[in-house]
Amino acid sequence: MMKAHSAFRKMASRIPLAFVPAAIVLCINIVLNPHILSLRGINNLSLQIVTIALAVMAQTLVVLVRELDMSVGAVVCLTTVLVGSTMGTLHIFSLVLVLVIAAAFGLFSGLIVAYVKIPGIVVTLATSMIIGGLALVIMPQPGGTVEEFLGRLVNDQPLLLPNSFLILLVVMMVWKYFKNTKFGSALFAVGGNPFSAYASGLSVEGAKIAAYVGSALLAAVAGIVVCGKTMTGDATIGNPYTLSSIAGTVLGGASFMGGVATMKGAVAGALIIGVLVNILFFLGLSSHYQNIAEGIILLAAVVISVFANRDGKD
Amino acid sequence: MKLADRNLNRNSLRFVVPYLLFILCWLVVSLAVHGYGTIGHFLYVVQFAGLLGIVAAGQTLVIVSGGIDLSVGALVTLSAVIATQTAFSAHLAFPFAVLAGLLGSVAFGVLNGIGIGLIRIPPLIMTLASLTIANGVSLLVTNGAPHEVRDPGFQAWVVKPGALGINGILQTWILISVILVFMMGWTSFGKKIQFLGSSPKATIYAGYRPKSLILVVYIFSAIFSGITGMLLIGFTGNSYLGMGDSYSLISIAAVVMGGTSILGGSGSYLGTIAGALLLTLIASVLTLFQVSGGGQMAIEGAILLLLMIAYTTAIRTRD
């Protein structure tokens, strides 16, 4: 009996706390709109949440090393624009090109943050202007061609589970592997306490650079999924993702002091945001309220996390 | 204390650099481009710099105190939208409409101050949230439609040259500049926010109240955004969604360009004035060469980044 109890506790402790509110909002959504449980409903929900989840994971990676990435949305914009404008000639290789370019921008931000030692917030504020501006230069109006295969890759669900969900699963698996490597644990160590990480021979600079490169790559994957959803390139479609990514990271239980974050929590945070937006829409609130709602969700999440951390410390 | 001393000493000369840069750029532009470099062109640049400079005044206070305010652009839009909407639908006299616009902006300043000062939410996240909420409120107020301003007296004051050949925008900017330079350089409030920016903990031990200081700083920032919003509707004659959006990032660029440390603790409004002039000059040249909005954004981002790197490295090598 005792054994079973502790086994249950061990299992429960592995599930981030953020899944509790996520489950609650999901239940509310199901009660309001049972159609969400149909195959099509699940696919739509998955499509909606996976892009946010990838953006939140991108942000979480950077928050883990005590920085912030304000360029998540801009990278999503640039990705859709680049896919839209190069897919006609490069076909599937345009996805590779996009990932390489995103990684290069992540490396650029990371190098400046790590070696010039300017706070990542303001560095990425500037790089987001550069990246977003470039996207607008390449494609002032939405357009471009996206091939059919990307749309099928993102939107279909041949295995009962939506493809978009499988993409998220693959990314999670890559993270699970990476987390346990020497480099992955360095991210946690550097975020937790940069001085002791430095003293024990870890490269603080390397960890920060890796976090920014990883963040840009994840944002680019989010952009590719967005592209498959909308089938066009659009230089402004990604802008809301910066805000959602920060809100989701906070909701997912990551600490802005670094060192504490889980990717499962990030997914739960994204689930909360996506489903809440769904509920608002279903309640018939006009889309005019969406901005206000998202701002309030972010604020509520931060206030809760600030008070939770304060209780822990005092 | 020693650090604060050094910061204060360093301030005294750093703001000269952007002025020299501005004069250099001015000479290059007036030699290279026909029609540039005249008094008329100078006044044109200065009045646009004024709109930016007033927003950047609040941003300077915020950044010197160790924070950052991303919501200024949204507050410019919000105040403009509220003012025109109340004048339009509630048939209020124009001064009341202006008051309503400023109050709307100040409400968000109070919200920012409470969130950052009292609840201790990181400034970037707090102002990002209020930016989003303010944008939502603007959308609700206008329903997405632009509105005209119908107050010829106010519009004429803003645009037409009045006393000493300068228009309302410049009169306001000069007034605010004098107040701000005095406030930051010669009052205890100015010293306190510099201390707050270099070490919040030391501020508490020194017996100041950081919470109320932070509240005041963000309210100032909101008021200045509101004032720019009012001048902007007087200048363009109407209000529309997103009209102030670009000010958020550009005001930060102007502050950084003026030699204020992005890390807080040191800076001056004199530098920000030069930063606003320089950025406006660059924008006018880019517009002349028909660089698109996206291109301008990318170039401004690159300038902001280069300046941050240059200033931060310069400080580090000097220490």
Give a quick summary of the entry.
The complex is a heterodimer of chains A (314) and B (319). Chain A has 314 residues and is mainly α.
Task: Describe the protein in words.
Chain A contains 14 helices and no strands. Chain A is mostly helical and 314 residues long. Chain A has one domain. In chain A, helix 5 (93-116) packs antiparallel against helix 6 (120-138). Chain B is mostly helical. Chain B has one domain (2-318): ABC transporter involved in vitamin B12 uptake, BtuC. In chain B, 77% of the residues lie in helices and 1% in strands. Chain B contains 14 helices and two strands, in the order H-H-H-H-H-H-E-H-H-H-H-H-E-H-H-H. In chain B, strands 1-2 form a two-stranded antiparallel sheet. The longest helix of chain B is centred in the C-terminal third of the chain and has 27 residues, at 210-236. The A-B interface holds A 68, 70, 112, 116-119, 121-123, 125-137, 140, 235, 242-243, 246, 250, 256, 288-296, 298-299, 302-303, 306-307 and B 68, 115, 119-122, 124-126, 128-133, 135-137, 139-140, 143-144, 249, 252, 256, 262-263, 292-302, 304-305, 308-309, 312-313, 316.
Q: In CATH, what is the class of chain B?
A: Mainly Alpha
- What's the pLDDT, averaged over the residues of chain A? 87
Q: How is the largest sheet of chain B built, in terms of strand order?
A: 1-2
Quaternary assembly: heterodimer
Radius of gyration of chain B: 19 Å
- The level of helicity of chain B is over 70%
Question: How much strand content do the residues of chain A show?
Answer: under 5%
Structural class of chain A: mainly alpha
Can you summarize the main beta sheet of chain B? 2 strands, antiparallel
Overall structural domain count of chain A: 1
Radius of gyration of chain A: 19 Å
**CA(first)-CA(last) distance of chain A:** 36 Å
Large-scale geometry of chain A: globular
Element order, helices and strands of chain B? HHHHHHEHHHHHEHHH
- The total of helices of chain A stands at 14
* Average pLDDT taken over every residue of chain B: 85
Tally of distinct domains of chain B:
1
**Quick one: how many beta strands of chain A?**
0
Shape of chain B: globular
| Residues in β-strands, percent of chain B | under 5%
Count of separate DSSP helical elements of chain B: 14
